[in-house]
Amino acid sequence: MILNGWEAVFFWIFSIAAIFAGLLTVMARNAVHSALFLISSLMAVAALFILLGAEFIAGVQILVYVGGVMVLFLFVIMLVNVGAEEQGLSEISNKPRQVAASLIFCLLLVIGLLFAINTGYQGLQKRDEARLGGTTEQRRAQQQNLATGATGTSRITTDTQQVGNSLYRFASLPFEIASVLLLVAIIGSVMLARTLKQEAAVDDVDPEVLLTKVAQEADRAETLQEPT
Amino acid sequence: MKSHALLFAPINFVDDLLLKFFSPEAINNVVWPFIQIGLVVTLVAGWVAYATYLERKISAFMQARLGPMRVGPWGLLQPIADAIKLLTKEDFIPDKADRGIFFIAPYIAVASAFIVMAVIPFAPDWGVITDINIGLLFVLAVSSVGVLALILAGWSSNSKYALLGGLRSSAQMVSYEVAMGLSLIGALMFARTLSLSGMVNAQSADSIWYVFYQPVGFLIFLVSGIAENNRAPFDLPEAESELVAGFHTEYSGMRWSLFFMAEYAAMVVVSAVAVTVYLGGWYFPFVYRFTEAQGHHNLYVIVSLLVFVVKVLAVLYLYFWLRWTLPRFRYDQLMDIGWKWLIPSALINIALSGLGIFLVQALNGWRGFKTIESISAGLNLTATGKALMIAMGLIGLFITGGLLSKINWRSRDFNLKLQRRNIRLVNLPKGKPAVPAAAPVAGSEI
Description:
The complex is a heterodimer.
Chain A: H1 6-27, H2 31-51, H3 55-79, H4 84-87, H5 96-126, H6 129-145, E1 147-148, E2 155-156, H7 159-170, H8 172-193, H9 196-202, H10 207-225
Antiparallel strand pairs in A: 1-2
Helix pairs in contact in A: 1-2, 2-3
Chain B: H1 9-21, H2 24-62, H3 78-88, H4 99-115, H5 135-156, H6 160-191, H7 196-206, H8 210-213, H9 215-228, H10 240-243, H11 253-278, H12 287-290, H13 297-325, H14 331-363, E1 372-374, E2 380-381, H15 383-407, H16 416-424
Helix pairs in contact in B: 2-3, 2-11, 4-5, 4-11, 5-6, 6-9, 6-14, 9-11, 9-14, 11-13, 14-15
C-alpha cells in the first residue's frame, strides 16, 4: 500500500501514538494508568484499521476491547489491592532472569520482523510502476461502483457484508467452536476458582463434615458396585 | 429553483458565499461538515441547558407544584442562572485524587456522547453530517467508551462512595450493552445495512416504521437505553440515598456539570438511535409528496428535520415521565431485568425475526401469494407481507413474554442453597459440629 497526502499523515500520527502508548503501558507504575495507555493504544490501532479500509474491524475493536474487555480489566484492577511498589518512588528493577527472557523474546521478534519486512519489500519491488498505477485505478473503479452515502460525498462500502458472508459461509464451524471454547473457559475458571471450602461455606456446612460425607459417598459407591 | 425556493434562500445563499472562498470539494468535505458539527454541538448543548429546566418543570407539574418561577418569565432564564453559578463555583480537587484521570474523566464522558452525533441522520441531504457503513456499530462502540469515564471518575476521586458508584456503573452498563446490541439485530435483518441513513431509507422505501415489525426489539432497546444512560429507575450508580451522588460525588463546578451534560447528550443519542432504527427517523408519510415531489427541496429537508426533532422529543419525554413515576430498582432486581429478561428476550427476538423473514420469503410465490416487492434497499414487502410481518411481530411479543414469564415465574423463590442441600447434602448438620466424628451414618438419610 502506497500512502500519500492526508492518509500518510494520519498513518504516521496513529502508528507513533500506538507505539508510544504501548511503551507507556509497560512503563506506567500505576495499574490503572497502564490500562488507560493500553486503551489509547487500542484506539490508535482501530484508527489504523480505518485507514486500511476495514471499518468493521475498527468498530468491533473499540466495541469489544475498549468497551468490554478493558472495562472489565479496570473493574478487576479497582477490586484488587494496589501493591506497595506502585505507590513508592523507588526504582523497580526486574530479576536478571526476567530481563534475559524478555531480551531473548525481543531479539526473536526483531529477527522475525526484519525477515518479514525484507520479504515484503522484495515483493513490493517486483511490482512495476504500471501495475501499481493499475491497482490504484482498480481501487478507484471499485470505489466508484459502491453506493453513495446520504451526504453524497462518501461511499458506503460492503466491508461488513463481506466479513459476515465469509464468517458464516466458509468459517461457520471454526466460529462456533471458538464460541464453545469461550464458554468452556468461563465454566472452567468458575470451577477452578471455587474450592471445597467455599462450596461448603455456601451450603452452611463445616468443611470437615463435607469431607467425611464425600468419603462416605465414595465408600457407598464402592459397596454398591461390588455385587455386580 | 422554483418560486417557493426563495422562502429558504438562506441555505443557497450560504452555498454561494462559500463558493467564493473554497473549492467545491473543500466545501463538501471540510466546510459543510464543520458548519453542521458546530450547529449540532451548539443545539445539543442548548438542549442540555433547557433539559434541566424541562425536567424540573415536568417533575413539578407531575407533583402539582410550579417548579422554577423566579428567574425570568416562568423561570425560563433559570438554566442560564444555573450555568453562571456552576462556572463561578470553585473547581475543587480532593487531596488524594489521581489528578490526571480526575481531569480527563469528564471530558471522556462528554466526548463519547457528542462524537456519536456525527453519524445520526437528522434529515435527508444536508441534515446528515456523515454516513458510514458501520453507523450503528460506531454508535454502540463510541457510547461504550462512555462507561470508562464513569469508572475512571469513580476511581480517581479516591472516595468510597465514588468508587462504589463507578463499580456499579461498570457492571450495569456492561450487562445492558449486551441486550442493547442484541435488540438491534432484528431491525438490521430488515434494513440489511448498518448505515443509519440507509436504515431510514429502507423504512421510507418500505413506508413503514420498524417498531411494527419489531415490537420486542423496540421495548428491549428502550429499557436498556434508559439503563445505559443511568437514568431513573436505573440510576443505581448515582443513587443519592445510598451513595451520596455516586461516581461524581467529589466533582464540583464545571466538571460536575460536564457529567450532567454528557448524561443529557447521551439521552439524546439513545432516543435518536431509537427513532432512527424503530420509528422511521426523519421519514413521515405524506411529507415527500407535498414537498420534494413538487420541487421544494429545502422545505422537504426542514420538514423532515422537524419530524425527527418531534419524534426525539417524544422519546425524551418518556425518559422524564419514567423518572418521576417509577421508584429506583434494587441492585439485584436491576441485574435480574438485564440478565433474566432482556438478554434472553433479545435472543428469542433474533430467532423469531429470522424465522419471520424466512417464512415471508418462503410464502412469496406460493399459491399466488406475493409478499416481497424488492430486497435491493432493505426488505421491501407488499401489503400482504407487511400484514403477515406485523402479525408475527405481535405474536412474537406474546411468545417472548409468555416464555420468559414461565421461565422466570417466581425465580426469586429459586433457592439455590436449599436445592444444593436437598440434592447432595441431605440431613447434614449446619455449622460446626460439636464432635467432628458426629456426622450421620451413611444410608440413614434416605
